[in-house]
């Protein structure tokens, strides 16, 4: 199944399919939304583009579990709580148009998310949580002798993990619904190769583009 060498593993990071909140470009973190009909259709359209894997890991949210079931039917997902999306605090459920005049939001965007969201999760805490979860997945793969797995998670979760592995900017790794990355890592979890899986996008793009104008 895998073309990785004996001392390498591959992890396919996949963002969940589209939800109604995604369609409206809302910040959806802790809200447990299911996939929309459009989201289900979008995943089904790309089924042939997802590689086969030996094991599937997923965030416990409905949207990620549904996505995993669509892409890998018949393969039970191991749920990893630390793969959940960032808690968006007072921004939860709102979009850029609704938030753009709020001082706390203006400051958050201006600092590229580096300050804590009121009532939400800080980038530092989110980064630690997601990397701890990724390390848990790697450890499980090593214990079971797995060479290729899929991790079905959220846009922010994927951005957090990949930016830390690559030691690069968080917003460089925005991913569209159903898209993601194929990672090749060595036994120590060092990133050896990074390839995109479908297209890239993110709900914060509107805010960043407006800031740069």
What can you tell me about this protein's structure?
With 213 residues, the chain is α/β, with parallel strands linked by helices. It has helices at residues 20-23, 37-45, 62-71, 96-99, 103-110, 123-144, 155-166, 205-212, and strands at 8-15, 55-58, 77-79, 148-153, 180-186, 191-197. The chain has eight helices and six strands. The protein has a six-stranded mixed sheet. A hairpin with a 4-residue loop joins β5 (180-186) and β6 (191-197). α6 (123-144) crosses α7 (155-166). The chain is globular, with a radius of gyration of 17 Å. The model is unreliable at 200-204 (pLDDT under 50).
Low-confidence stretches: 200-204
Query: What order do the strands of the largest sheet run in, or round the barrel if closed?
Result: 3-2-4-1-5-6
- The CATH level-2 architecture is identified as 3-Layer(aba) Sandwich
Helix proportion range: 25-40%
| CATH homologous superfamily descriptor | Phosphoglycerate mutase-like
How many structural units, i.e. domains? 1
Mean pLDDT: 92
Q: TL;DR of this structure?
A:
The chain has helices at 20-23, 37-45, 62-71, 96-99, 103-110, 123-144, 155-166, 205-212; strands at residues 8-15, 55-58, 77-79, 148-153, 180-186, 191-197. The protein is α/β, with parallel strands linked by helices.
């Amino acid at each position: 199944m895998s073309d990785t060498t004996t001392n390498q593993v591959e992890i396919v990071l996949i963002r969940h399919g589209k939800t109604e909140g995604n369609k409206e470009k809302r910040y959806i973190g802790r809200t447990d939304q299911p996939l929309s009909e459009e989201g289900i259709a979008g995943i089904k359209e790309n089924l042939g583009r997802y590689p086969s894997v030996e094991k599937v890991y997923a965030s416990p949210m409905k949207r990620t579990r549904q996505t995993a079931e669509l892409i890998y039917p018949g393969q039970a997902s191991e749920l990893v709580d630390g793969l959940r999306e960032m808690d968006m605090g007072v921004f939860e459920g709102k979009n850029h148009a609704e938030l753009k005049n709020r001082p706390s939001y203006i400051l958050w965007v201006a600092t590229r998310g580096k300050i804590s969201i009121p009532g939400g999760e800080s980038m530092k805490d989110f980064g630690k949580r997601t990397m701890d979860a990724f390390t848990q997945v790697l450890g499980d793969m090593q214990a079971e002798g797995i060479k290729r797995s899929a991790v079905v998670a959220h846009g922010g979760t994927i951005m957090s993990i990949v930016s830390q592995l690559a030691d690069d900017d968080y917003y460089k790794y925005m991913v569209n619904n159903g898209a993601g990355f194929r990672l090749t890592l060595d036994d120590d979890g060092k990133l050896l190769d990074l390839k995109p899986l479908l297209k890239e996008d993110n709900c914060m793009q509107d805010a960043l583009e407006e800031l740069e104008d």
